[in-house]
Amino acid sequence: MAQVVAGSYDCDVVVVGGGIVGLSTAYAIGRAAPGTRVTVLEKEPGPARHQTGRNSGVIHSGIYYRPGSLKARYAVRGAAEMVKFCAEYDIPHAVTGKLIVATDREELPRLHALVQRGRENGIAVRELCAAQIAEYEPEVQGLAAIHVGTTGICDYAAVARRLAEASGADVRHGAEVVRVDRRPDRGVAVLTAAGDIVRARILVNCAGLHCDRIALLTGDEPGARIVPFRGEYYELARPELVRGLVYPVPDPAFPFLGVHLTRGTDEGVHVGPNAVPALAREGYDWRTVRPRELGATLAWPGSWQLARRHWRYGAGELHRSLSKPAFARAVRRLLPAVRDEDLVPTAAGVRAQAVLRDGTLVDDFLIREAPRAVHVLNAPSPAATASLPIGREIARRALAGLAGSER
Q1: For helices 301-309 and 311-322, what crossing angle results, to 10°?
Q2: How far apart are CA 390 and CA 205, in angstroms?
Q3: I need a labelling partner for 141 at 20 to 30 A (CA). Which of 79, 195, 240, 306 fits?
C-alpha cells in the first residue's frame, strides 16, 4: 500500500461510512468550509442500506434522554431541523405527535419521571388519564399516558440521498475500507477492497456497525466494541387500528424503547422492534451468521458481562423473536384488538450498540478524536433525528484537526 506523501492528497477529509451521519458530516463540512475537498467511502452500492434505511422513520422529540447529554441536546435541536430540512427539500414527513402509554401500575412512576425529563429538555408534554387516551388513539388502552407533540416521521433514506447531493462531496459507493495507513505528521491513506487508495489530511470514521473495526484499522483503541442487536418488525395488516405513534414506557436500564407502533409516511403501521443479539454485524435474520464477527463479539469481555447482568430481559426478547404469539401478546398490552394474524413480518434492522469492557451499554453518542482522525463510536437511535447537529459537531472537530495539521 502506498504511503502518504505530503502534498499528494486526493482530498482534505475522507469520511468512512455513507449513512446519514457520514453524509450529514460531509454536508456540514461543505457549508462550514466551502472548498474543502471531501470524499465519502461507502461499502454498499447505495446510501442508507443499514441503520439509516432500516429504522422506524421516527423523528424523536428528545424526551427520553438524560438532560444535558448529547442525545438530549442534539435530538431536541435535530428534530426541529429535520422537519425544516424535509420541508425545504420536499421529503415526505409529518409532525404527528406520539403517545407514551403506561399499561401497568409499576410503570406510572417512570411515566411521571419522563414528564419531568421532557420539561427539563424543553419539550411540551401533556399528561393524560386513561379516558383521555381515546382522544388520540381510540383502540389503545392504558392506565395513563403522555402526549408529546413534537414527535414526527420522515423518510430517512430520502434525507440521506439529499444530503449526499447537497454536500458537494465525492461520494463513492462500493468502496469498502480494508486498510488504513495513518502518519500523524502527514495524513492518512485508505485502501479499499477494489484496490483504490485515497489519501487525505484527516479521516472521519462514521462506519456505524463497523466503527470499532475502522478505529482499530486506524491504530486507535476505541475502548468499546459494537455488539449488534437485531430489531425485528412486523407490518400491521389492519393499519386503521392506529392513528399515529404509540410507545410503551421504556425501561431506563436499557437504551431500547420497547415494541411500539408507528404509522409511517406510506400510511402503513410498523410494529416493533424487539432487541435480540445478531449473529453478524449485518445479521438481519437468524440464518445470517458470520463466524469471524460473532467470534469477535464473544471475545469481548463486555459481551459476557452484559449477558450475565441482563439475561432475564434478553430471554424475554428472544422468546418474542422466536414466537409470534408472544410478540403479539406484547403488542396487545397497548393495542388489545390486535390478533396474531394481523402481524405480517417485514424487514429487520440492526442497532450498532457500543458496549464497554465491563458490560456497560454506552448510553450517549460517543465521539473521540485522535491524531488525524475523528471516530464516531456510538451513534444509534436517535442519531438519524439528530444527524444535522451531530454532523456539525463532527465537522467542527474534523476542521479543527485539519487546521492543526496545516500549521
Answers
A1: 90
A2: 13
A3: 79
